Amino acid sequence: MTAHVAPHVAPAALAAYAAGTLGPDPATTWTIEVHLERCAQCRARLGELAAPPLRALLDDTRTTILAKARSGPRPVPRSPLQGRLRRWRLRWTGWSVLGWAAMTCSAILAAVLLDWNYPDRPSVVLLLAPVAPLAGLAVTWSHRANPAWETIAGTARAGLELLLRRTLAVLALVLPPLTVAGLALGRNPALWLLPCLTFTAATLLLGSRIGVPLASALLGGGWLAAAGAVTFGHGSASATAPAEALIRAETMPAWAAAAVVLALLTALRADHLRNPATWR
Amino acid sequence: MVRAVSADEVAPSRHAWPIEAAGLSVKAGRHLAVDGLDLRLGTGVHGLLGPNGAGKSTLMRALATVVRPHRGTLRLLGIDATAGRALRPVRARLGYLPQQFGFYPRFTVRDAVEYMAWLREMPSSAVPAAAQQAIDRVRLTDRADAKLKSLSGGMLRRAGIAQAIVNEPDLLLLDEPTVGLDPEQRVEFRELIRELGADSCVLVSTHLVEDVVAACTDVVLMGDGSLVFQGVPADLIRHGETGGVGDSPAERGYSVLLHRHRDAA
């Protein structure tokens, strides 16, 4: 920046400025001050020109500050890497996410075991996978589950930005186990990763209107109840299970299109996510 | 080195009142806790007094933009605080200590304060120094790297104050900040808010009338969700000269004003 502010203040003008004899025209003063703000070299020159009483005052101040720095508490050593990791964790993940992640992973594991033991029944993993991240979203953006919600909800970053960070953290925790589950069952994991994203985007969009916890309860509970009732309600009529019918290679373009549309609509409603009511 | 003052620091404000509410109603659950409140607060330290259930905390929440007003207008720092789009710049210049300061028990004091500085959109390079300064100001320097769960009630309250002042807010809202502080700490706290109130608007909600008289430039008394009295502490004391219940003139003034309000209602 300093490269663009040359030429420096003329010595005579600087001396007059330091002595306070520059004259009544404020424009001359401003010109010098604007330059001084950006030029460390001229500030140093000005420091040398300062009147003796001012220099004595500055010397005293410096001595006092140094004395305080010596007698005060010692700075805490912290390795840069540790500090960076800590900051990274604070910014991206919520606090209560760990308990929820354990719960979701065990649910996925149980579903995989069920699918393994009853290969001729409709897949439970397929039923569970699209809505697996929703519980995490509800936990991280809830005024009940998050003890710090009141301090966080009124900050500048609360809104789409923070919610997206939380969503990415949740997805990063859910998608790997789902991928492994898919590979273990010999299916293409992309089949349920895409519906997973669609449901997440739908939750964010609905959440901007009625609150994220309520939206995930409605969408997740609704999907599980509706698809589960049809799948397991009729016993042997399992060939027409909605999860199997809806999540096929042929329906993937529709899921992708829905995910994109829902994500765009969410971005348009970003202002509404600042509303504290989205934490309800 | 001589420090130059940048243009941002001397820019004039374009609003008359940091807090300007007209006909403000705020719901707590289904109940209308703040009902048709008109309030204008300028720079300085304002003490918010009132009995339990008068709507103090609900008002603080609305001012902290944590609850959206039900009716009426609310302008904070000259910006309409009921519109979603405008909230971001207001929230960056706000500091808030809730009545229940909930925080992650595994955070250290420094983590909590730095996290809040980041959430309030301070530039990353300024965060560590600002956090250290805020911790020093509430005298928690020796416990800066202690986990929040290991702190006593008074220390936790001071950590809460530190996270509220870290971004040097133009509008600082403290909901019962002196709960759990011992007498010496309360005196230090009064000094701190007097300092902060020199160039920003500080609103302190409290039950302790003597805190308000000692540290505030202005008294706001609330009852049943509406404004009962607004004036300087000397006015409150003057009302107490004619009777009322309490141990000090200010406490008697408080009870006189509340009784008068209840009789009128």
What labels describe this entry?
heterodimer, A: 280 residues, mainly alpha, B: 265 residues, alpha/beta, six-stranded mixed β-sheet, four-stranded antiparallel β-sheet
Question: What's the rounded overall pLDDT mean of chain B?
Answer: 89
Straight-line N-to-C gap of chain A: 47 Å
User: How are helices and strands ordered from N to C of chain B?
Assistant: HEEEHEEHEHHHEHEHEEHH
Pair of chains with the largest interface and how many residues each contributes: A-B, 37 and 40 residues
Instruction: State the strand order across the main sheet of chain B.
Output: 6-7-8-3-9-10
Shape of chain A: elongated
Oligomer: heterodimer
Largest sheet of chain B: 6 strands, mixed
- Would you count the extended β strands of chain B for me? 10
Question: What is the beta-strand fraction of chain A?
Answer: under 5%
Query: In DSSP terms, counting alpha (H) and pi (I) runs of 4 or more, how many helices of chain B?
Result: 10
How would you describe the overall organization of this protein?
The complex is a heterodimer of chains A (280) and B (265). Chain A is an all-alpha fold and 280 residues long. Chain A has helices at residues 11-19, 26-38, 40-49, 52-71, 80-92, 97-117, 124-128, 134-140, 149-153, 160-184, 190-210, 212-233, 242-246, 252-268. Chain A is built from 14 helices and no strands. In chain A, helix 11 (190-210) runs parallel beside helix 14. Chain A is elongated and about 95 Å long. In chain B, the strands form two sheets. Chain B has a six-stranded mixed β-sheet with strand order 6-7-8-3-9-10, sandwiched between helices. The mean pLDDT of chain B is 89. The chains are: A mainly alpha (280), B alpha/beta (265). The interface between A and B is large, with 37 and 40 residues.
